Amino acid sequence: MRSLKKTRWDERIFGKGKIEDTNVFLANIVYYVIMVFVILIVLEILGIDQVLPPLENMVSEFFGFTPNLVAAILFGFIGYILAKFVSNLINIGGTFLDRMVDKTGIKIPIN
């Protein structure tokens, strides 16, 4: 959690809101994932085979899902970048058209 506070990535993404909750949430996720691995190792060392298969299936499904999650985040990020680019293009085009209209002196009445 201290590492997450030092990076300040959440302040850049979420603004200056309740940032502490985001850091605690991510720190808890990492903690519990590590704890599941430790439990798997301890159960394997102790030779308890009845509990091991469901936990191994859970971990394998989790890691099978993570590539899809990473791909979704990547697509979202690319979509965000493209949307910002198009927004800037429209802004530049609108500014250009405003200058052209101002040069011609045509007044458009707004109701």
- Beta-strand residue fraction: under 5%
- Secondary structure class reads mainly alpha
- Principal-axis shape equals elongated
Kindly state the mean pLDDT as a whole number?
A: 81
Largest sheet composition: none
Q: How many strand units? A: 0
* Count of runs of 4 or more consecutive helical residues: 4
Q: Report how far apart the termini are.
A: 55 Å
The low-confidence runs, each spanning 5 or more residues with pLDDT under 50, are none
Q: What is the CA-based Rg, rounded?
A: 26 Å
Please trace the helix and strand order, writing H or E for each element: HHHH
Helix content: over 70%
Brief account:
By secondary structure, this protein is mainly alpha-helical. The chain contains four helices and no strands.
Structure, described:
- The structure is a single chain.
- This protein has 111 residues and is mainly α.
- Helix content is 84%, strand content 0%.
- It is built from 4 helices and no strands.
- The chain has helices spanning 2-7, 9-14, 19-46, 52-104.
- Helix 3 packs antiparallel against helix 4.
Could you name the key traits of this structure?
111 residues, mainly alpha, 0% strand
Topology:
Elements: H1 2-7, H2 9-14, H3 19-46, H4 52-104
Helix pairs in contact: 3-4
